[in-house]
TrEMBL record:
PANTHER family per record: PHOSPHORIBOSYLAMINE--GLYCINE LIGASE, PHOSPHORIBOSYLAMINE--GLYCINE LIGASE, CHLOROPLASTIC
Pfam families the UniProt entry points to: GARS_A, GARS_N
Protein's name according to its UniProt entry: ATP-grasp domain-containing protein
Keywords: ATP-binding, Ligase, Manganese, Metal-binding, Nucleotide-binding, Purine biosynthesis
Molecular function terms from GO: ATP binding; metal ion binding; phosphoribosylamine-glycine ligase activity
Organism: marine metagenome
Length: 337
C-alpha cells in the first residue's frame, strides 16, 4: 500500500513511525511533514488550499491507497468529503461529522439531547449577557470559544474576574477570530481528567489504550490551557468498569446519535473525560487522534495499525482486535515561551 498522512506535528510523526512498520506498506508520504518525519517517510509540499484539489491530485498521481488526516482543521473544512467525491480512500470523519469537534455548542447540544453525561453549560453570543450570567452564578467555570482554537480555547475562570476577562478575550477582543463568535460557559467539573480514544466504522467502536494528558502550561496545573504539555499511557484512573461505563453511556450513544442525525462518524473519536464522584463525564470531543496522546498510544500498540484503519473505512471493524504492550509510555512536550 501507498499511504499519505496529512499533518506536520509529533502526532503525525508517531503515525508515520507506526505505519512504516507494517508489512502491508511500501511507501508513506507526509504533507507537509517535518524534518523528523523525512527520516522515515517522504515529505512533500502540497497546498491544502483551493478546496483541497491539489492534495487530491497528489493522492491520485502517486496512486495513494489510503490517506490519513491528522489535524482537525482539514477535517472541519471538508477534506474527507473532497477525497470521497473523487473516489479516494480516506480515514477520518466528513465535514458534517467533524462538527462534533469544530463546534462545542453543537457537541453540548448533542450530549444534552441524548442524555450523554457532561457539565452544565450555557451558550452566549453577547458579552454583557455572558458576564451577567457568570456574576449571578458566582462559582468557578470554564469559558470556551465555540470553534477550533488549537486546544487553547478553553480558559479557566476560577474567579468571576477571571471568567469576565476570558469572555472579553473571546467575544469582545476577538482573540480566537471566527472561532469565538459564540462562547460556552461551563461548570468547572471536579475530578481527574483522562483521554479515551476509540476507532469506529460508524457502527462498531473499538477502544484503544487509555491516556492522560496535561494541558496547563505550568507545574501544579497552573497557567494557561494549552494543546498539551505531555501525556502518559495507560491512565490508571480508567478502570475496566469505568471503560465499560464510558462505552455504554458515552461512546455508543454519541456514535448512534450522530448517525441518526445524518452525520455518520467514521475514524477516531477522542473523548476527553472528567472522572467525577458521580461517574465519567465528557469534557470535549475531538474528531481525530489526540496530540500528544498519539505519541504515547502508538508506541504501546503491538497490532498493525493499517488493517485497523482500513477496517474503519471499509465498515468491518468488528472483525478486528487490538493488542497492547504492558509497559507505560510517557511523552513530554518541548515548547518555547
Amino acid at each position: 500500500m501507498r499511504i499519505l498522512v496529512i499533518g506536520m506535528g509529533g502526532r503525525e510523526h508517531a503515525i508515520v513511525w507506526k505505519i512504516v512498520q507494517s508489512p502491508l506498506v511500501e511507501q508513506v508520504y507526509c504533507v507537509p511533514g517535518n524534518p523528523g518525519i523525512s527520516d522515515i517517510g517522504e515529505c512533500a509540499c502540497v497546498s491544502l488550499e483551493d478546496g483541497f484539489s491539489h492534495i487530491a491530485d497528489f493522492a491520485e498521481n502517486h496512486q495513494v491507497n489510503l490517506t490519513i488526516v491528522g489535524p482537525e482543521t482539514p477535517l472541519a473544512n471538508g477534506l474527507v468529503n473532497v477525497f470521497q467525491t473523487r473516489g479516494l480512500r480516506v480515514f477520518g470523519p466528513t465535514q458534517q461529522a467533524s462538527v462534533i469537534e469544530a463546534s462545542k455548542d453543537f457537541a453540548k447540544n448533542l450530549m444534552v439531547e441524548n442524555s450523554i453525561p457532561t457539565a452544565d453549560y450555557r451558550t452566549f453570543v453577547d458579552a454583557d449577557a455572558a458576564i451577567s450570567y457568570v456574576k449571578a452564578l458566582n462559582q468557578p467555570v470554564f469559558v470556551k470559544a465555540d470553534g477550533l482554537a488549537a486546544g487553547k480555547g478553553a480558559i479557566p475562570g476560577r474567579t468571576v474576574e477571571e471568567a469576565i476577562t476570558a469572555i472579553n478575550r473571546i467575544l469582545v477582543h476577538g482573540d480566537f477570530g471566527t472561532s469565538g463568535k459564540k462562547v460556552i460557559i461551563e461548570e468547572l467539573m471536579i475530578g481527574e481528567e483522562a483521554s479515551f480514544t476509540v476507532l469506529t466504522d460508524g457502527d462498531y467502536c473499538l477502544p484503544l489504550a487509555t491516556a492522560q494528558d496535561h494541558k496547563m502550561s505550568h507545574d501544579g496545573d497552573q497557567g494557561e490551557n494549552t494543546g498539551g504539555m505531555g501525556a502518559y499511557s495507560p491512565a490508571p484512573v480508567i478502570t475496566k468498569s469505568i471503560e465499560k461505563e464510558v462505552m455504554e453511556t458515552i461512546v455508543y450513544p454519541t456514535i448512534r446519535s450522530m448517525k441518526a442525525e445524518g452525520r455518520e462518524f467514521k475514524g477516531v473519536l477522542y473523548v476527553g473525560l472528567m472522572i467525577t464522584q458521580t461517574g465519567p463525564k465528557v469534557v470535549e470531543f475531538n474528531a481525530r487522534f489526540g496530540d500528544p496522546e498519539t505519541q504515547v498510544l502508538l508506541p504501546r500498540l503491538i497490532s498493525d495499525l493499517v488493517p485497523l484503519l482500513n477496517a474503519c473505512v471499509d465498515g468491518n471493524l468488528n472483525l478486528r482486535t487490538v493488542e497492547w504492550k504492558p509497559e507505560t509510555a510517557v511523552c513530554t512536550i518541548m515548547a518555547s515561551g
